[in-house]
Amino acid sequence: MEEVDRELIRAELDAQRHISHTTTHSQPLPRRPSNEVERVVSASSVSTSSSEAPRERGGMSRIPTQRDLERHPTELSRINTARSQHSATVGRSIKSHPSKKPLPAFGAGKPFPPQLPNQEDYVVEFDGPDDPYHAQNWSLKKKLLTAAMLGYTTMTSAFASSIFSAATPYVAKEFNVSSEVGILGISLFVVGFATGPTFWAPLSELKGRRLPIVIAMFGFSVFSVACATGKDLQTVLICRFFAGFFGACPLAVVAAVFSDMFNNATRGIAITIFSMAVFTGPLLAPFVGGFIVQSYLGWRWTMYIASIMGWVAFILDLFFLSETYPPVILIDKAAELRRRTLNWGIHAKQEEIEVDFKELIQKNFTRPMRLLFGEPIVTLLSIYMAFIYGLLYLFLTAYPFVFMGVHHFNAGQSGLAFFGMIIGQLIAGTVVLLDQPNYQRKLAANNGVPIPEWRLPIVIAGGVAFTGGIFWFGWSGYRADVHWIVPAASGLLTGFGLMGIFLQALNYLVDAYLMFAASAIAGNTFLRSLCGAGFPLFSTYMFNGLGIEWAATLLGCVAALLVPIPVIFYLYGHKIRAKSHFAPTLPGNTPGIASESSNDTAVGEDGTVDHAAASVVPKTNIESEKA
Fold first, then answer.
1. Measured between alpha carbons, how far is 39 from 184 in angstroms, rounded to an integer?
2. CA nearest 226: which of 215, 213, 237, 239?
3. What phi and psi values does residue 347 have, to the nearest 5 degrees?
4. Cβ burial 310-326 (10 Å sphere, 16+ → b, else e)
5. How far is the C-alpha of 274 from the C-alpha of 420, rounded, in Å?
6. What is the DSSP string of 150-167?
7. Taking the CB of residue 177, how many other CB atoms lie within 10 A of it?
């Protein structure tokens, strides 16, 4: 593994040793309710070594222990999670910036000043677990308003990805090109979805969540207007790509905002609702676009509508969105303290980071590709999810074959048929939400350690439902004497399968790869977005050449062949993870690895364990030779 990876693993090990040492020599701390304990930790909470403190392995710093006996369990969990978060941030490593140049003079004949007496004393932290600056301590009203605002922002981006599908025949006619070239307007937008996160995700880790979202919605709105006013085809297609590139930001960053705001007890619900907005957006757009292109407004208004929605999102985010990323919140806090105290040594940990291009490439492209092509779990699940995601956009051209070609609907009425899939997705989201109490009970029974394979039963059920829905759609949709409601109802199964597979498969990747989850998901997103861009391009030829029923049969057979993938991981995933160089082997999450009592930070006065707190305390048992 790369040196950065080794340091990341060492940071987790250091955190574990430190937390064990602290709690061994301290009295049990008062128990805090589980819905208040967990925090998405600030990198600024992690301590730096002083100028006099020795550095150990790979430059990792040691945190002074004089205050540890006084710290609350939440703060201890926050500090330990911060170590891995800070290690994963681009530019954190000193080795990223080697220089052979001589040290420049200080200037004006001045000698270099002495080092700060104890650098840790100058690092700003949150003031206890109830610090109002922390996003998880916001009022419920503020959290809900922020979630609604960002949900609308995300849906706008997803909505714009597919509203163009109704305009493609009109674009092809106006610019005198084939229908496949017109469909490029959809494909290039999705290619933007594939490339955008490689820029927006690291930017959100360096500069916070708010800045990327505001910039991205401005760019999305500008390029949507440019697409609507384009005088030639190349302008339209290029602007669609950049609209997708900027529109990818909410998909990459908003889930992280929810993680900043919500704790373990509520995050699953929040992310589920967010995912429902992401996947229903592309299916709400076709009927809106269909009625627009049939009216006197014309196809350009499909992009004007998207841009208007984008400007509304931009204004809301610009004036009402508060920063949620803890490290950046502490940067603002440190700036205010410096200004008011005139003590220029005060700083946040995040301010020590300098961007290094080489490390940026390695963490945001090289490592995701290594995971995508070198880890069986990531490879196979990404292939499965890429196929499902490709079919989501293929349906944008397949549904018109059935409802316009066979049942003679107009474009707007044909778009309404997607409501079957939307209802199926809502059902899947509801099932996942109803499964949350059962998941929490399993988590508590396993001492707060999640086993990734718990996520897979819904993926398996979704795979079976998705396969059945494709066969149902094809063999009920090619005959005019079969009522239109029958193929439309097939969307209940395909929608359920799509949402069930995506939501829980992504959760499985997060649980399995922990500190490397972002890289695993980045690789997954790259592959599935390429399929989402490519599938619509051949769908017309396939349905014209094979016929609706046999084209659906081919797709259904491929879907059936992929169903065993989550079954294999459900049965043997723990063995595969045990051999992985990236998936951490935690006590309790992998059979054969003995459980250890490492929940000390979550032990209350009565000796009971708060599993919400325990689930965020590092329990890694990764052997150094894996690196």
1. 43
2. 239
3. -155, 165
4. bbebbebbeeebebbbb
5. 20
6. HHHHHHHHHHHHHHGGGT
7. 13
The strand pairing partners of 603, in sequence order, are 609
CA 196 to chain CA centroid, nearest Å:
13
pLDDT value at residue 371:
84
Residue with tokens 């008011």: 340
The pLDDT of residue 621 is 38
pLDDT in tens, 179-218: 888 888 888 998 898 888 878 878 887 888 999 999 999 9
Which residues make beta-bridge pairs with 430? none
Tokens representing residue 88 in the block: 């994963």
Q: What dihedral angle (degrees, nearest 10) is formed by the CA atoms of 176, 180, 182, 188?
A: -140
Distance CA 352, CA 404 (A): 59
Residue 104 token pair: 């420049």
| Best CA proximity match to 384, nearest among 574, 583, 566, 573 | 566
Q: What is the mean pLDDT of residues 419-425?
A: 91
Report how far residue 162's alpha carbon sits from residue 395's, in angstroms, rounded to the nearest whole number: 11
- Supply the DSSP symbol for 110: P
**Dist. CA 496–CA 483, nearest whole Å:** 22
> Tokens standing for 312?
């509304």
CA triplet 522, 524, 527: central angle to 5 degrees? 110
Question: What is the rounded (10 degree) CA torsion for 385, 390, 394, 396?
Answer: 80
State the pTM of this model.
Answer: 0.74
Reported as type and span, the H/E element at residue 209 is none
CA quadruple 203, 204, 205, 210: dihedral sign:
positive
How does pLDDT run across 50-83, given as a tens digit for each residue?
333 333 333 333 344 344 434 555 555 555 545 5
Cα first-last separation, the chain: 5
SS3 603: strand
Does pLDDT of 620 surpass 50? no
